Amino acid sequence: MKYDFLMRSRVLFLFLLCFPLFVRSQPQPYHLPIDPDSKKIMFREVVEQQGTPAYLYDKAIEWFGYYYLNAQSVYTVQNKENGKIEGLGRMKIYYTDETSGAKRDGGTIQYQIILELKDNKYRVTLTDFNLKTASRFPIEKWMNKSDVAYNPSWDSYLYQVDTTMQRLISTMKDKMKPAVIKKDVW
Hints:
Layout: H1 2-24, E1 43-48, H2 53-67, E2 75-79, E3 84-96, E4 103-118, E5 121-131, E6 137-138, H3 153-176
Helix pairs in contact: 2-3
């Protein structure tokens, strides 16, 4: 009986020791939308939201200040009259070091963000995703698993881009809604 307990505890210990390696090696699912014309990753959504283009513009500027640490460094176009805001956003990507299990810097992804505003709706477009290097490196290359230079970390990077862009759109939708004013009733 004591022998049986020792065997089971050793098997359990080995399982727990190897479990993080097993979990880390699993590919992370990503669902990146590809524009059929340009063959580039493109998140695009039209959102129905009450308000004039000027009101939606002000809400969008408020969201930029909330989402980006330095919104002024993101803007390339700010045109309230035409209802358009464009910019270059950046996000960090990470990989897990296989030997130490530590999270390491994988680089910076730069992307274009375009916000177009009309009466009672706006359209957000996120496209032109590139790894910041000495030359232009479109991240769509990471989707090619038959590439001789394929690296399993690419799937993790694409997953990070997908989840970050989904979160960006979600926070934008929340911040673009009119503020709810609660009355203090006693």
